[in-house]
Structure formats: structure tokens, C-alpha cells
Specification:
Layout lengths: L2 H28 L17 E2 L13 E7 L11 E3 L2 E5 L6 E5 L5 E6 L13 H6 L11 E3 L3 E5 L4 E6 L5 E6 L20 E3 L2 E4 L11 E6 L5 E6 L4 H4 L7 E2 L2 E2 L26 E3 L4 E5 L20 E5 L6 E6 L15 E7 L2 E9 L4 E6 L5 E6 L7 E4 L6 E3 L5 H4 L5 E4 L13 E3 L4 E7 L1 E7 L13 E7 L8 E7 L4 E8 L8 E3 L3 E5 L5 E5 L5 E4 L12 E5 L2 E8 L7 H5 L10 H4 L12 E6 L3
Parallel strand pairs: 1-34
Antiparallel strand pairs: 2-40, 3-4, 4-5, 5-6, 7-8, 8-9, 9-10, 11-12, 12-13, 13-14, 15-16, 17-18, 18-19, 19-20, 21-22, 22-23, 23-24, 25-26, 27-30, 28-29, 29-32, 30-31, 32-33, 34-35, 35-36, 36-37, 38-39, 39-40
């Protein structure tokens, strides 16, 4: 063992008692339904509120309680935090953070803008950073540490620690590089939430569409010092995997498990972005996240499984060492990023109690896994339109691909048609919620298919590296819309009920103790639903803009509130957000979602609802 490794481990050991204490305090705060202290509500990602003031009999009386304009007109993903009597609201680029005093009519206590003189902390201009954002100027929210720190992961990859009381900078570190000229690094961006565990904050990265080799990086919350970094692909030492102890499908992955699955040095620009919502089990001391697509989108130039893109990773957060890995889409040919959230639920699966992990992948399959061992328990389609694979082989864990929909089999410069789902998946980043009473997941989905034509493209550091032309459209032979909200039974792997929507449902859902669930739509409505039956209980008046944010709930001075961050954009709304016109622009989304402009327009407003006094 090197001196460096010994010193890092020794430092971690010395810091452990306070770190555990900080973690315990944060978990205690997560259990307080009056607050919303983490983007997913808690480490398990349940997005469930124990508040019971709003129920099935009175939800129809919800009224607008107050609103807050962010002053930014692009896609607003994620959602606010509520810490005590203060709400923290974030925006799309330029990534402003507001602190609102809930005791004083939402007075702005402080406002922080990381862009100064037109530049981000890493030195790149805001215009440059916008130019390399894949799918709109989104950010998925800030997070909180109980030492009084709000952490922002800005678009230029800077990780910024702010004093929660004053908004003053505590420290800033720039994670990667959003400029040009650095091989396998340039054009990196930050859109995912910063994830806080103990006295550490971890961030992923975006940039697979520019040939970035992405990674997860862990920082010290007090100093901003980098603790470890684990790449999505490459040599074992870069990935922080142990060939003999790290497993996949319950077997050791072996030496050079990633390198063997890439042609030449293609792994150096291999993608594998990490930008979704994550999970953590404090008893198992395990961090869970997913990696995205391999670069480029043209599969012909990178034959092999391209490990470990498209993978669920389970790691020790203290040193980054991988415990187990599961690749959902080996040799991705469709851009089915594996970045969606990891939900941790203890439940019975096939008659046996399991510490489970549930993951709704972009590829259209919902996976239930043993989160301690990495054993695959269930893998079933959660959208009936999915056709690129017939099923997942439960012995090998591999999807059984249909040649008709294989873009590699059909070949370069060939337009493979009617693939379901489209590249944006049966579900993208919009997180699900879990209802413990029924055991159902409330899932916002995309019901969208595509035509996909791969072509050859050369890599240049900091420039687009996509290599495919896409067109998107509603799933054929269905209800004609582009989305559904479903109740998913994870133990049986089946849909219990489904609500059709005209457009994809791109906002994160919420479940509550009274059996009332909430979701928001691209055409600008917030809806309440009976989680058990699927009956719509209430629909809001028209919101100022369509929503790609996440519904959340809190209580203040004895009243329960439900909030939704509105502001159309994201991949589905990129045509509106960026003023794009060509059907194949926006990586194929512009044509598919063209009608959105008839129902909504740009905005950036937090809408808050409550029952009348």
C-alpha cells in the first residue's frame, strides 16, 4: 500500500466518529416530515411524506398558497429544500440559489449567483458552458449538510459550499473542465445533485455526448479537498474495483473487466455520465448510482460490452471501492443511459425478505435487486411498448436484443425505425416515489419511440461526439399520447394501473401517508391521484409553465404545503427552451414534442398549494 493511500485511510478513520454523528443528524432530519432536507426526501429515495393533512376527501379543495419567480426562463429540474423555517430554491443556468424566510412572507434572505463577470468559477464563460450542455440548462438541485452548508453543483462542474445562513462561499473546487483541448475531459458539465454522506459530498459528471470519460468524485465537506475519484470505465485502479472482490451477477469481475470490452483506447473517451438521483444505505455503508451511455452513439465503432457504462454501481463511500456492479444494457446501441434513481426498499420478493434496490431504467425494464449482494431478482418491462429486447435472461442478466431493432446489426448509415423506447427512455431523470401502504411505485413515464441512424464521427476534445440522427414520436398502436403515470408492483414486476397523458410525464412524483400521490405535467398541470386505484382526485389550474421539477411537501406553522418547481425545458422541452425548429434537433426531441408550444411557454416559478384556512 502506498504512503498516500495509508494517509488517506488514516485521516478517514480519525474523522469517522464526527462523520457518523453528522450522518445520524441528517438522517434524523430526513425523518421529520415538516422538512424536506434532501432532493429525494431521504437516502432511500422514497419521495414519501408522512404528512396527513391533505387526504382523499379534501385534496379537491387545494388552492394556490403562494408563488415565487426564479427570474430564469429555462428548464427547472429537481426541487427546493426546506430546512426549518428556510426554503432553498435553485435555478437553471446561471444556477442561482435563493434562501427564502418562510416566517416572513418568503422574504429573500440571500441570493447567490456563481456567475460573475459572465464567467463561472472554473474560468469558462457562461455562454461556453451553455453550448456544451447536452439537453437544456438544467440543474437537479442543492443539498444540505448539518454543519450549516448548502452545496451547489454548478453547470461548469464547480462544487460550491455556501453558508446556509448567509449564502457566503465557504469553498469552491472545480471538478472537471467545461472548455476545450483536454482529451477525454473537456466539455464536462454539472447537472446532477451533489450527494452528501457523512462529512463528504459526492458529484458525478455529464459529457458523454462530447467524449468525456466520466467519474464519481468525493470531496471533504469542510475543506473541499478531493478524497477519491472512481471512473466509469478504464483500468481497475482508475475504477476503484477489486478484480477478486468486486462482483457482478454474484461473481468476481476479474482483472481488466472494463478494458477487455473496448476496442483499443476507446475507453479513454468512453462516456458513462453520472447525473441522476442517488441512494445510500447507512447500515450497509453503501452508495448507489448509475452510469450513462458509452461514447459515441454509433455502436459500430466500439464493439464490445463497453463496461462499465450503463451500470448500477454499489460503492463504499469512504474509499470508493466498488462492492458490486450490474450492467443493464451491455453494448448500448440506443442511448439508454443507466443514470436513473436508485430506490432502496426492504420487502418480500418471491416469498423471501430482501434488502432491495429498485431501478426504473431508461431501457424500459424495471429491476429489483438485492442491494447487499447485487443479486438480480426481477427484471420486467414497465412500458408495454418496449420492443428492442424480448426479456432479460435472469441467469446472465443480459437483455435479449431483437435484431430488427439493433442499430449495430442494421448497420452504420442505416435508419433503424420504430424502436421503443426512444433514447430518452421509458423514464428519464424524473424520479419515482414509493407508497409503503400498497407497496406500489408511482412512476412518471415516457411512452415514446424513435428512428435511429448511426453515422461515423471523429473525436475532437471539447466538441460534440454523438454520431447518430434521431426522430421521436408517440408509441404506435396506443392511446396517442407520449406519457403515462403508472403504479408499479415491484415484487411481481407488473403495472397495477396506468393513466395516459398527452406528453411525457417529466416531473418527479410524490406519495403521502393518506394514499394521495402527486405528479405534474409538461402541459402545465399538477394532479393528485389515489395511489391504490389510479383515480384522479384533483387537477390544478393552469401552471405558469410546464413542469420538469419534482413535487415535494412540508409543513409550516401547522399547515401542510405541496410545491412544484415549474419551468418547461429539459430534453423533452428543449425545442421550446432553446428555440429549435428542425425535427431531428435536440437529439431527436424537437419533432416529437413540437405541439408543446400550443400548451405552455417558458417560465421559472415555484408554485405552492395548500388547503384553505
Amino acid at each position: 500500500m502506498s504512503i498516500l493511500k495509508k494517509s488517506v485511510i488514516a485521516s478517514a478513520a480519525l474523522a469517522l466518529p464526527f462523520a457518523v454523528s453528522a450522518n445520524s443528524k441528517l438522517e434524523k432530519m430526513m425523518k421529520d416530515p415538516n422538512q424536506w432536507v434532501q432532493q429525494s426526501g431521504d437516502y432511500a429515495g422514497h419521495r414519501y411524506s408522512e404528512l396527513d393533512q391533505i387526504n382523499k376527501s379534501n385534496v379537491g379543495s387545494l388552492k394556490v398558497a403562494w408563488t415565487f419567480s426564479t427570474g430564469v426562463l429555462r428548464g427547472h429540474e429537481g426541487g427546493p429544500l426546506v430546512i426549518g423555517d428556510v426554503m432553498y430554491v435553485h435555478t437553471a443556468i446561471p444556477n442561482i440559489v435563493y434562501a427564502l424566510d418562510l416566517n416572513d412572507n418568503q422574504r429573500i434572505m440571500w441570493k447567490y449567483n456563481p456567475v460573475k463577470g459572465g464567467k463561472y468559477p472554473g474560468g469558462e464563460t457562461m455562454d461556453r458552458v451553455i453550448s456544451v450542455m447536452c439537453c437544456d440548462n438544467v440543474n437537479r438541485g442543492v443539498n444540505y449538510h448539518p454543519n450549516g452548508t448548502i452545496v451547489l453543483h454548478a453547470a461548469d462542474t464547480s462544487v460550491i459550499a455556501l453558508d446556509a445562513k448567509t449564502g457566503k462561499e465557504k469553498w469552491i473546487t472545480t471538478n472537471l473542465h467545461s472548455g476545450t483541448g483536454k482529451y477525454g475531459v473537456s466539455a464536462s458539465t454539472g447537472s446532477g445533485q451533489p450527494f452528501i454522506i457523512k462529512d463528504m459530498v459526492g458529484v458525478g459528471c455529464s459529457g458523454a455526448e462530447f467524449g468525456v470519460r466520466c467519474n464519481w468524485t468525493q470531496y471533504d465537506i469542510n475543506s473541499g479537498k478531493r478524497l477519491w475519484r472512481a471512473y466509469s470505465m478504464g483500468p481497475d485502479k482508475d475504477m476503484l474495483v477489486d478484480p477478486n472482490k468486486t462482483t457482478s451477477m454474484l461473481k468476481p469481475i476479474g482483472k481488466d473487466s472494463s478494458l477487455k470490452t473496448w476496442p483499443g483506447d476507446a475507453w479513454k473517451i468512453g462516456g458513462g455520465s453520472i447525473w441522476g438521483f442517488y441512494g445510500y444505505d447507512s447500515k450497509l455503508n453503501t452508495l448507489y448510482y448509475g452510469t450513462g451511455n458509452p461514447s459515441t452513439w454509433n455502436p459500430v465503432v466500439r464493439p464490445g460490452d463497453n463496461k462499465w457504462s450503463m451500470t448500477i454501481m454499489a460503492r463504499n463511500p469512504d474509499n470508493g471501492m466498488a462492492k458490486w456492479l450490474y450492467q443493464m444494457t451491455p453494448y448500448d446501441e440506443w442511448d439508454y443511459d443507466g443514470v436513473n434513481e436508485m430506490i432502496l426498499v426492504d420487502m418480500k420478493v418471491k416469498g423471501k425478505n430482501r434488502q432491495a434496490l429498485v431501478h426504473f431504467d431508461r431501457n424500459g425494464f424495471a429491476y429489483t435487486m438485492d442491494r447487499a449482494s447485487g443479486e438480480l431478482l426481477v427484471a420486467e418491462k414497465y412500458d408495454p411498448a418496449v420492443n428492442w429486447a424480448t426479456h432479460v435472461d435472469m441467469k446472465t442478466g443480459r437483455p435479449q436484443v431483437v435484431d430488427r431493432y439493433s442499430t449495430a446489426h442494421q448497420g452504420e448509415d442505416v435508419n433503424t425505425t420504430n424502436i421503443c423506447p426512444a433514447a430518452l427512455g421509458s423514464k428519464d431523470q424524473q424520479p419515482v416515489s414509493f407508497d409503503p401502504a400498497t407497496g406500489y411505485f408511482l412512476v412518471p413515464t415516457n411512452h415514446v419511440c424513435m428512428d435511429y441512424e448511426p453515422f461515423r464521427v471523429e473525436y475532437t476534445a471539447g466538441q460534440p461526439y454523438v454520431g447518430a440522427t434521431l426522430s421521436m414520436f408517440p408509441a404506435p398502436n396506443s392511446h396517442g399520447g407520449m406519457g403515462n403515470v403508472i403504479a408499479w408492483n415491484p415484487t411481481q414486476g407488473k403495472i397495477e394501473w396506468s393513466i395516459p397523458e398527452k406528453f411525457s410525464v417529466w416531473a418527479g412524483t410524490l406519495t403521502t401517508a393518506t394514499g394521495v400521490g402527486f405528479y405534474a405535467t409538461l402541459d402545465a398541470r399538477l394532479k393528485a391521484v389515489d395511489v391504490k386505484s389510479g383515480k384522479i382526485l384533483w387537477t390544478s389550474p393552469k401552471l405558469p409553465s410546464g413542469s420538469i421539477g419534482n413535487v415535494h411537501s412540508w409543513e409550516h406553522r401547522g399547515k401542510q404545503y405541496v410545491g412544484i418547481l415549474t419551468g418547461i425545458g429539459g430534453w423533452a422541452g428543449i425545442g421550446l427552451a432553446a428555440g429549435l425548429e428542425k425535427d431531428t434537433d435536440g437529439l431527436g426531441a424537437v419533432g416529437g414534442y413540437r405541439e408543446l408550444s400550443k400548451y405552455t411557454d417558458l417560465g421559472g416559478t415555484l408554485m405552492v398549494f395548500a388547503l384553505p384556512n
